[in-house]
Structures are given as structure tokens and as C-alpha cells.
Amino acid sequence: MLVLIVVSIIVPRFGAATESQRQREFLNSLQRIFSQARNEAGEQRQPVSVTFDDATNAFIIDNTRFQVTVPEGDVQLNGFFRNNRDTASADWQAEFQADGTSDQAALNLSAGGRLMVIELDRLGHVSMREGEFQADNTEEEWEAGEIERRG
User: Fold this and answer.
1) Where are the extended beta strands (E) located within 1-151?
2) Nearest residue to 63 via CA among 80, 76, 50, 81
3) pTM beyond 0.90, yes or no
């Protein structure tokens, strides 16, 4: 009887710990895939992209076998952003240039009940924080000036 009580307490905690471990591994791997793509762009002296494949539910560096699969049930992807605009997952990509610069990209996700943002800035740096990325979907309008005649 005592054994059943102890087992009923330990098993749920073990399951939660395993889920938490998978989430941490995924988040670390996702940050590494961006670093790997940036390094490859520099080594190859040509652009290298990370894309998302809906069919396999994975982030992939183009022309390689290196990929990071989203763990089922542990992590939910809630939003894809590129150059400060909301985009469909099938159209999302982060392209790295040979000089180390990149597209600005972001991902909203939830893991373990927490909302997280993974952001990639134009210098190719990756950051992760709690919260949500807010896209700026307003159109910029530039006021036309008058032609000024000179001389």
C-alpha cells in the first residue's frame, strides 16, 4: 500500500520533468540551428537560410540534413515573423549573409505554459525571452515633398 502511494507521487513528477527536459533541449537546439546557419554562411561565403517545414514540423538549414523537430505536445508554435511582419509558417525563413548579418525574424511559442519569443536581429544574434513578439503591420507612408529648384 505504501509503495502505491509513493509511486503515485513520483510518476507524475517524473513525467513533468521529462517534458520540461524536452522543452529545454528543443529551445537550446533552436538557438543552435541559427548559430549553425550563420557559421555556414560565413564559411561558404554565400547566403544560408533556416526554414520551417510544416510536413515534418521541423526547422531546417537549407541544403543540409541539420534540422530541429518541434517536440509534439511539449511546444506549440504560435506565430512566425519575418522583417517585423506576420508571416505564414510555410513562408517563414531566416536568411544569413556571408558577413554574419541576417533577416530580422521571430517566433512566438508556448512551452510548459509559458509564452516565449525567440528573436533574431539583423546582426544575426539570437535572443530568447518570455512574452510575445508584436509585429508592426502598419503601412509606412512617406509624405511627398515639393521639388525645390536650385540654381
Assistant:
1) 48-53, 58-61, 67-69, 75-82, 85-87, 93-96, 105-111, 114-120, 126-130
2) 50
3) no
Nearest to 104 by CA among 88, 90, 120: 120
The C-alpha angle with vertex 107 and arms to 102 and 109, in degrees rounded to 5, equals 160
* In the block, residue with C-alpha cell 529551445: 27
Is 70 exceeded by the pLDDT of residue 82? yes
Cα separation, 135 vs 68, whole angstroms: 24
Alpha-carbon distances of 45 from 31, 38, 64, 97, 117, rounded to whole Å: 21, 10, 16, 8, 29
- Please state, as a whole number, how many other Cβ atoms lie within 10 Å of the Cβ of residue 32: 13
Q: Is 104 in a helix, a strand, or coil?
A: coil
